[in-house]
Amino acid sequence: MDIVFQQVSYIYQPNSPFEHQALKNLSFSIASGSFVAIVGHTGSGKSTLIQHLNGLLRPTVGELRIGEYQLKANEKLANIKALRRQVGVVFQYPEHQLFEETVEKDIAFGPKNFGIASADIERRIPQVMKAVNLPLDLLKRSPFELSGGQMRRVAIAGVLALEPTLLVLDEPTAGLDPKGQLEIMDMFAALHKQKGLTTVLVTHNMEDALKYADHVIILENGTKYLEGKPEDIFIEKEKLESVQLDLPEEIQFLQTFQQRFGLSIPYRGQSITELAHEIKQRLEGMNQNE
Amino acid sequence: MSTSQIEFHRVSFRYSDDQPWVLDDVSFTINKDEWVAIIGHNGSGKSTMAKLMNGLLMPDKGDIIVDGIKVTQKSIWEVRQKVGMVFQNPDNQFVGTTVRDDVAFGLENRGIKREQMLRRIEESLKAVRMSDYLLHEPHRLSGGQKQRVAIAGVLAIAPDVMILDEATSMLDPKGRKEILHTINEVKQLNKLNLITITHDLNEIIATDRVIVMNRGQVWLETTPRELFSDEQKLLEIGLDVPFVAKLANQLKDLAIEIKPQPLNQKELLDALWTLYFNK
Q1: Per-residue pLDDT tens for A232-273?
Q2: C-alpha to C-alpha distance for B106 and B104, rounded to whole angstroms
Q3: DSSP helix/strand/coil, B99
Q4: Contact A177, A152 (CB under 8 A)
């Protein structure tokens, strides 16, 4: 699904002492099939932005388009349910939203609400369990007996069961241990490819943004601060630091390495093994030239 | 006087009789003034250990000794005087309507005199650099500021031990940095046992010793440096080493002898400099 924001502003509690403008004249577009990372420190407007993507919020000023759906200020979207069926949102700590008696019922709850036929739901359940890497024998268990990582997977399975075309992920790995973080992100990357999804990832983790996204939007103070390819954005040390963001660790290291040894190794998505080879080669080459 | 601050003697714990053991025959000692990290995957039992240390939970088997006192229902108030805890969720630990009231809460509970109370509030907020926020409402602060106030609340009761139970895991990178900085400062200025419970190995770099938990058991006791060279073993139990350690380990695989195991970027760059330009 294409996403186009045109001069969108959003104001919480307008005309009250608590009035707060969370988005300011925000414009950007995301092509269908992209994996986009939205980055910014707390309070930069990330959460407000993603709540527009499935119509939980409507712009105070301006308009946006999600696929064929148009969201405008002061105009209710008639077929909002159709939009929400296509936009799967994994909120922060989604396991807090589990409530059913069994894993199976919890996963089925969303699709049922959207009027999807039982036979279809039954077909989807084993598929999404496989997608989130959970064994089928958990289906009859209470979600509350599972580990934190498993609970998160069940919650994600519930979103995937809607078979969304746009997947919105708000800090999906927060609180998970490193292995859990890697597994969940690799899972989303695989789903993105297999299903041809459009994926919007909200994250504080620069390393994840660099590794998984093909496009990065940096928000500051409710408006777009930088936008581009991760490998172009994440070398802008001063610009990022002035909005309290860090460079991803690998790029930070390569920049300090250059300062120290005068050897430039540009980041092109190399693995750590490849970086080690390159570093060795360059250092040895330099040594021979002396 | 003994040098041990916290001792676990063959401790086992489970949340109910029909549940598996969360901790299974766990023994270790934490010495006075030591800064120890307890790490482990989700569900490894590390947070349960923290709650056992100040009597929020009681062991089913074994004994826990805090500064020579056995933790029992009778001794918990004495133990809690010695062991303060900062929890994971910054929004779950406020009772006061202002920062000052909140820090005062623990002191009032202990019946501390007013003059002394005012002094301690001032000192502890200064230690976390939150003096300017005395009359602010806690819930309007940033995540990092909230956790700093929580740390001040613990410091105010002047405990021997401060446990940080995943105290940074819900913060953004800026908040995380704030807290790590605050903790380092606090550790330098106070004679205090620090226990950091985390699964983020970037947070253990400054600690003296690391206890690694796996499936309810002590899997390894070591130093951060030693630990970072055991990358493969850590991956197997759901943990991961920081980028610098990974790169150093890869370079070592290419027969570049980086010694000692670097804890940060500077140490790795220094080691490379020595190897290539300072022969």
Answers
A1: 999 999 999 999 898 999 999 999 999 999 999 999 889 999
A2: 6
A3: helix
A4: no
Q: Are A196 and A183 in contact (CB under 8 A)?
A: no
Counting Cβ atoms within 10 Å, is residue B96 exposed (0-12), middle (13-18) or buried (19+)? middle
* Mean model confidence pLDDT for chain A: 93
Model confidence over B142-196: pLDDT tens digits?
888 899 999 999 999 889 999 999 998 888 888 888 888 889 888 888 888 999 9
DSSP state of B161: E
Work out the average pLDDT over A138-152: 90
- A32-54+80-230 topology per CATH: Rossmann fold (3.40.50)
Domain ranges of chain A: 32-54+80-230, 248-290
Partnered with residue A66 across adjacent β-strands are: A3, A69
Rounded distance, CA A3 to CA A21, Å?
Answer: 22
Q: Are A97 and A155 in contact (CB under 8 A)?
A: yes
CB contact under 8 A, B244 and A272: no
Contact of A250 with chain B, judged by CB distance below 8 Å, is answered with yes
Does the pLDDT at position A9 exceed 80?
A: yes
Q: Class of B4-224 per CATH? A: alpha beta
Contact A211/B at CB under 8 A: no
DSSP-derived pairing of the beta strands B4-13 and A20-30: unpaired
Can you give the pLDDT at residue A67? 93
Put simply, whether A175 touches B (Cβ < 8 Å) is yes
- Bridge partner list, B164: B86, B196
Which residue reads 């806690």 in tokens? B138
Any chain A CB within 8 A of the CB of B273?
A: yes
The answer to whether B272 faces chain A, any CB pair under 8 Å, is yes
Q: Which of B175, B199, B268 sits opposite A178 (nearest CB)?
A: B199
Q: Which of B174, B251, B273 sits opposite A244 (nearest CB)?
A: B174
Highest mean pLDDT range out of B83-97, B136-150, B251-265? B251-265
Which residue reads 């549940």 in tokens?
B19
- Per domain, the residue ranges of chain B are 4-224
Rounded to 10 degrees, the C-alpha dihedral A270/A276/A278/A279 comes to 130
Give the ipTM of the model, two decimals please.
0.84
For residues A199 and A50, the answer to whether their CB atoms sit within 8 Å is no
Residues of A in contact with B143 (CB under 8 A): 42
Q: What is the pLDDT of residues B97-137, one digit of tens each?
A: 899 999 999 888 888 899 999 999 999 999 898 999 999 99
Q: E strand or H helix at A240, and its extent?
A: helix A237-241
Q: How far is CA B197 from CA A151, B44, B49, B189, B200, in A?
A: 22, 11, 9, 21, 9
